[in-house]
Specification:
heterodimer; A: 376 residues; OB fold (Dihydrolipoamide Acetyltransferase, E2P); Dihydrolipoamide Transferase; 3 domains; 4-stranded antiparallel β-sheet; 11 helices; globular; disordered C terminus; B: alpha+beta; FAD/NAD(P)-binding domain; 4 domains; 5-stranded parallel β-sheet
């Protein structure tokens, strides 16, 4: 019996991802723990490991496919000597999830075994080359346009996953992405002297979250000039103590010192090391500082945890490692999700002052993350 | 010109018999065992349901199945004093197999069934009176269509009485006298036959619904939009399960039900996407919202109309009476409904049904190229008429 490899949810908020690369090819032998593919989410690239021994019988989702819903079968693992099943025989995962929304479904549940052999949806519709063509009825498209609904965020319930009017209506009532960002995006048609570049998943999330943050979280900004002469002097003094070579080499940056200084300040003023929720202020004991790192597709914020307990040298080394892996898209989810405080530093570009936007990261928590710009 | 009425009826029965024989053959080919008899839900055995079948002859048998579909249909509704007697008072059943052509006929009820019989018998030469309690004939159709149907009927010599109340009917050995009150004035009609076409009732009796969680509402089994009853594993389809009382609706429900049981993904039926056809002359066909119902539902509508008088094919056929009417949602361009009266319209309505089912807007319909010369061109024109204006009217 072939085992389906499903699109994994690499974080609690992940609903879809892109298949960046197949590490294994069809016919390759895999053992538990082998990396078989790389998945790209809005935040990072991660590896998918085999959970069973076997042979990669069939790749269902080609490399480069975007917006694959979590739990969509992406490959079939088969036992040695077993025939490769038809792609069409794959349990139509997407259709099962989108099955009529009525509470009970006696027919469907009792007959699950039968459904395995019924190609109610063809393989091609299970893994739509999403991002390329959206299949929707003319009426659904028109209403989506009128209401500013992003069709790419909607799962179709019509034949072969076609988006029909009721899907758009449901999206509107559920308050799905009707952001002004996507609305405007749809309205601006590329002219002959411009060209359109499809958004990366990350870019879409950034646009959505920051719009949401800026419009739902009151921002206020305070600027103060700080003389850093003493800090810079201390930095030179400390850096001079670094060995010339070896594992213990370090070079503290101004940013490392700001991270540490923020941690000390947050311990002194615990009300700032907090997250806002509707019911209460959540005060955090540890100081986990997110550092904004610019990457080609957008921005990611790896976290230096327990900064209050760490030395400058530790902070510096950890930060370097995190930034390096962030740029390579190799962060693990827990390394960029959470954080009690964020630092966006553009001082190295000669920026004197800028107004950051709070990044609302978790749906239940609204991390209160004062942004800090440095000046020197 | 003369014709042999009994041969007309005999031919219609022969066609009907051929078709039902065809179904029996298909069942046999598909290796479906058929048990002739009266079926009744009879409790459960494990995870299966028992159905007791009492054959017309022989001993009862008990069948078991995980899923049971109830499809016992419906029968004519009877009004007190108007019970079909098989001789002078007919239901649709007797009206389909008349022994002779009645000279004078009174039809009670002007829904699809009543209008079809009134039209057929009038065309055969009977003197026909059509009586309707509602203010217009074909009351579920768009008002304009009703008015045109009435006009056409009256032109053909059918006496049409609407907002009419029936008095007590008196029978003699060979004829009946029916008092009909309209606007406070009573007129007596002496006729040879009366057809009672005042709706249908579902066959919910003696099928074992008692003591189950299956609910009924005014003689019909209550189901959800996937034909499921209150009892898991029991489904109801067709006339038994409610309006509209149409064979194609029952057929679609049957397929949907079986697909769902087989684990396929199915889509609930939207009754505003089921076409209705009335085979009177002129024919009537419609789908979706009437103009009035669309307005009631709160839509801002755009209405387009095209008379068959301006259609070449209809003129050439000598059938210039008729109208095609479209109702669009002004905001979204959704085709909310379409209503047609005239020659061949029952063959054309599927075009609009496809448009509604496929969620096309006025734009796709306007861009569709319709063949010339056909009556269907007027469907295109009726779309254009709702927006920039028809080309040929």
């Amino acid at each position: 019996m072939a085992i389906e490899v499903l699109m994994p949810a690499l974080s609690p908020t992940m609903t879809e991802g892109a298949l960046a690369r197949w590490v294994k090819a069809e016919g390759d032998k895999v053992t538990i723990g082998d990396v078989i593919a790389e998945i790209e989410t809005d935040k990072a690239t991660m590896e998918v490991e085999a959970v069973e021994d076997g042979i990669l019988g069939r790749i269902l989702v080609p490399e480069g496919t975007q917006e694959i819903a979590v739990n969509t079968p992406i490959a079939l693992l088969i036992a040695e000597g077993e025939a490769v099943p038809d792609a069409g025989a794959v349990r139509p995962q997407a259709s099962a999830a989108a099955a009529p929304q009525k509470a009970e479904q006696p027919a469907a549940t009792q007959q699950k075994s039968a459904s395995a052999t019924v190609p109610a949806q063809t393989a091609s519709s299970v893994q739509p080359a999403a991002g390329k063509r959206i299949i929707a009825s003319p009426l659904a498209k028109r209403i989506a346009g009128q209401k500013g609904v992003d069709l790419s965020t909607i799962k179709g319930s019509g034949p072969n996953g076609r988006i029909v009017r009721r899907d758009v209506d449901n999206a509107v009532t559920q308050g799905k992405p009707v952001t002004s960002v996507t609305g405007q995006g749809a309205a601006i048609a590329p002219s002959s002297s411009s060209r359109s570049v499809p958004h990366s998943g990350m870019r879409k999330v950034i646009a959505r979250r920051l719009t949401e943050a800026k419009s739902t979280i009151p921002h206020f900004y305070v600027s103060v000039d700080v003389e850093l002469d003493a800090l810079l002097a201390l930095r030179s003094q400390l850096n001079a103590t670094s060995p010339e070579e070896g594992l213990d080499v370090f070079k503290l940056s101004v940013n490392d010192m700001l991270v540490k200084a923020s941690a000390i300040a947050l311990k002194r003023v615990p009300n700032v090391n907090a997250s806002f929720t509707d019911q209460a202020m959540i005060l955090h004991d540890n100081v986990d500082i997110s550092i904004a790192v610019s990457i080609p597709d957008g921005l990611i914020t790896p976290i230096v945890t327990h900064v209050e307990q760490k030395s400058l040298k530790q902070i510096s080394q950890e930060t370097k490692d995190l930034v390096k892996r962030a740029r390579a898209g190799k962060l693990k989810p827990e390394e960029f999700q959470g954080g009690t405080f964020s630092i966006s530093n553009m001082g190295m570009f000669g920026v004197r002052d800028f107004s950051a936007i709070i990044n609302r990261r978790r749906p239940l928590f609204w991390p209160l993350q004062p942004q800090k710009s440095s000046l020197w | 010109m003369s014709f042999d009425f009994s041969k007309i009826i005999a031919r219609s029965r022969a066609v009907s018999k051929q078709l039902s024989g065809g179904v029996a053959h298909l069942l046999k080919k598909a290796k479906v065992p058929v048990f002739d008899g009266y079926g009744k839900l009879d409790g459960v055995a494990g995870d299966k349901r028992k159905v007791l079948v009492t054959p017309t002859k022989g001993a009862p048998v008990t069948l078991t199945a995980k899923h049971v579909i109830l499809a016992t249909g419906a029968r004519a509704r009877t009004l007190p004093g108007l019970e079909p007697d098989g001789k002078l008072i007919w239901s649709y059943r007797e009206a389909l197999v008349p022994d002779e052509l009645p000279r004078r006929l009174l039809v009670i009820g002007s829904g699809a069934i009543g209008s079809e019989f009134a039209s057929f018998y009038r065309n055969m030469g009977s003197e026909v009176t059509l009586v309707e309690v509602a203010p217009r004939i074909l009351p579920v159709e768009d008002e304009e269509i009703s008015a045109l149907a009435r006009k056409a009927f009256e032109k053909q010599g059918i006496r049409v009485l609407t907002s009419a109340k029936l008095g007590t009917l008196r029978k003699s050995a060979s004829d009946l006298t029916v008092p009909v009150e309209v606007n406070g004035k009573t007129e007596e009609f002496t006729v040879d036959r009366v057809i009672s076409a005042v709706g249908i009732v579902g066959n919910v009796e003696n099928i074992g619904l008692e003591g189950t969680k299956i609910k009924t509402d005014r003689t019909h089994v209550v189901t959800d939009d996937l034909c499921r009853t209150g009892e898991p594993g029991v489904y109801a389809i067709g006339d038994l399960a409610g309006a509209p009382w149409l064979a194609h609706k029952a057929n679609h429900e049957a397929v949907m039900c079986v697909d769902a049981i087989a684990g396929k993904k199915v889509h609930p039926i939207d009754i505003t996407k089921i076409p209705g056809c009335t085979y009177c002359r002129p024919q009537v066909a419609s789908v979706g919202y009437t103009e009035a119902r669309a307005r009631e539902a709160g839509y801002k509508v755009r209405v387009g109309k095209f008379p068959l008088m301006a259609n070449g094919k209809a003129l050439a056929m000598g059938e210039p009476d008729g109208l095609v009417k479209t109702v669009f949602d002004a905001q979204t361009g959704e085709l909310l409904g379409a209503h047609m009266i005239g020659a061949e319209v029952t063959e054309m309505i599927q075009g609009y049904v496809i448009a509604r089912t496929g969620e096309l807007t006025e734009a796709e319909l306007a861009e569709t190229i319709f063949p010339h010369p056909t009556i269907s061109e007027s469907m295109h024109e009726a779309v254009l008429a709702a927006y920039d204006g028809a080309l040929h009217f």
